[in-house]
Design a protein that fits this description.
The protein is α+β, with helices and mostly antiparallel strands. Helix content is 25%, strand content 28%. The chain contains five helices and ten strands, in the order αααβαβββββββαββ. Strands 5, 6, 7, 8, 9 and 10 form a six-stranded mixed β-sheet that branches. It has a four-stranded mixed β-sheet with strand order 1-2-4-3, with no helix packed on it. β7 and β8 form a beta hairpin.
């Protein structure tokens, strides 16, 4: 569960997208955004003093679990050990097929999208029960090139937050995955909301982007 990632590589990803004027406006301060987006290795989380108040802020955790059924308890143990409560927890490679399998975590609701034609993959989001949210299936996908799921956190006195969790299978076509992500931007660009996109691909591990 490593979150360290070179900011330059993050920027190279977005350079590959065909962004129009609206997306450029969204990402015009991306250097500052990415520099201020902190990534922590799991072993360092308990010692990060500035994270001790994370439970009172909007926070997102990403974990590439490689089977919730097999490793779900280890993930729960990790959460218990660090003693932090997150707003949302994004899960990639859930490896779920049977929707009746219990993957519950206390105080969270779980929304997921599973593969239906081959093993592995799958994405899911645990949402803290203190938050109101709706699903955004039109922003999700489940193809051989990209798997994604999205929700929208509803806030009374502030902009809503759209959370998008993406996973690109190692054998997926990167160009086609980029086109799918571009379509997500196209759908969001007219909405006056905050957008947080989290992406996992094997060659660059993990990164997150927060846009306003």
């Amino acid at each position: 569960m490593t979150f360290d990632f070179d900011a330059t590589e993050k920027l190279n990803f977005f350079d590959a997208l065909d962004l129009d004027e609206t997306e450029h406006h969204i990402l015009q301060n991306r250097d500052l955004t990415l520099q201020n987006c902190k990534y922590y290795a799991s072993l360092n989380l308990p010692s990060q003093v500035n994270l001790m108040n994370v439970s009172s802020k909007f926070s997102v955790l990403h974990h590439n679990v490689r089977s919730l059924v097999k490793n779900g308890q280890l993930f729960k143990d990790f959460l218990a050990n660090i003693g932090l409560t997150f707003s949302c927890m994004l899960i990639t490679e859930t490896w779920l097929r049977d929707v009746s399998v219990s993957v519950e975590i206390p105080n969270y609701s779980f929304y997921c999208s599973n593969r239906d034609n081959r093993r592995g993959g799958g994405v899911g989001i645990y949402v803290n029960n203190a938050l109101n949210y709706i699903t955004r299936p039109e922003l999700g996908c489940m193809t051989s090139n990209l798997e994604g799921i999205a929700i929208e956190i509803q806030r009374c006195n502030d902009k809503n937050i759209v959370i998008v969790c993406l996973y690109r299978p190692p054998d997926g076509n990167l160009s086609e995955a980029m086109q799918t992500i571009q379509s997500v931007f196209d759908k969001l660009r007219r909405e006056n909301k905050l957008c947080s996109l989290y992406w996992w691909r094997h060659e660059c591990k993990s990164f997150g982007l927060h846009c306003e």
